[in-house]
Prior knowledge:
20 strands, 30% strand, 9 helices
Amino acid sequence: MGKVTxxxxxxxxxxxxxxxxYADDVVKAEATPGELVSVHDPAGGxxxxxxxxxxxxxxxxxxxxxPEQPNRELWASLVGAAVAERKRLGLxxxxxxxxxxxxxxxxxPGLVVDRYGDVLVVQxxxxxxxxxxxxxxxLVREALPFPVRAVLDRSDASVRKLxxxxxxxxxxxxxxxxxxxxxxxxxxxxxxxxxxGHKTGHYLDQSQNRRLAAEGAAGERVLDAFCYDGLFGIRxxxxxxxDVLCMDQSASSGARxxxxxxxxxxxxxxxxxxxNAMKRLRELAAEETRFQRVVVDPPAFARNRREADGAAxxxxxxxxxxxxxxxxxxxxxxxxCSYNVRREEFLSFLALAARDSGRDVYLEGLTGxxxxxxxxxxxxxxxxLKCAFLRAR
Length: 393
Ligand SMILES: C[S@@+](CC[C@H](N)C(=O)[O-])C[C@H]1O[C@@H](n2cnc3c(N)ncnc32)[C@H](O)[C@@H]1O
């Protein structure tokens, strides 16, 4: 059994509740990559247990506190609690989709499990989660109220490089050759390409914001910029929007939007334009095109703190362009998925964009990811998505 000894600072940090321990706070590691290790303070006492990484700056991801070694019962109770929470949220409808297990924020380090209907997609991000993958997936299957048809491992996120791990995409049980159909409880339909799609196939974290962003869209002209599979726009069309323009620079996005619009019977109202949204929004504003509702949901502008300055400029500029496109009393729904841009910073960029626009802009709401992407107090990294609802007079 491996053993890791912390510095005094590492011990204090761990007692503070953050589940990650950085390599600088480790004095000695006698462990193999990914191993479950006992974690000791400098005097030799056991602080708790964690998964060790031999390569990452994050040397340890804590699983439990105190001397008792985590056993099957502990892991089963963590998984059981996560699945029970989705049940409480009404997210276990068999045809629906949700994040079942949120990785570090639910004390299962590095391992995310998403569900599309009865197909699971697993994403492993650290050495420890690679070793634990099959065991945890087994516990998830036990906790679910219905049988699982197939399980895909979509461990191809770039964070794996930091752990010295190669990308991996493989079916680990069964195989689904087609797109997977999802039906949300209110009838919204969409198909997901689990192997080729972004993330685990779809942006599940925006499910709730899409519903909120569609409220009151009846009769409106809507722009869904950075649309991916177009579900902000399609939801607006289903809520009665008259005309919806979905925009993304990726070629595959057009096919996804057209397909999902047809599934929901709103093809006549939903158009797609393949364009660089940063550039195209400026052109549309210059042509005096106006929308009653604009959604901007760009990719992360800051993947690390060093990119934060560029991100500040990017968010300010993008949101200014979006505000310029809004008709009087129009709604801007503006998202940021950069963890490195904190909530207050994002609001400050939006305030600068509002000032640049010369309009009175009101913050009607600020949300985060859907509740199946839980934010663990003590793990600020689990709060990455911000979504502001702004009304411009
Ligand atoms: C965060 S995702 C959007 C998710 C989407 N709104 C949803 O609800 O599922 C960002 C999208 O922006 C697209 N994208 C990235 N850079 C872009 C650009 N300059 N112009 C337009 N689209 C861009 C990507 O192809 C990706 O689909």
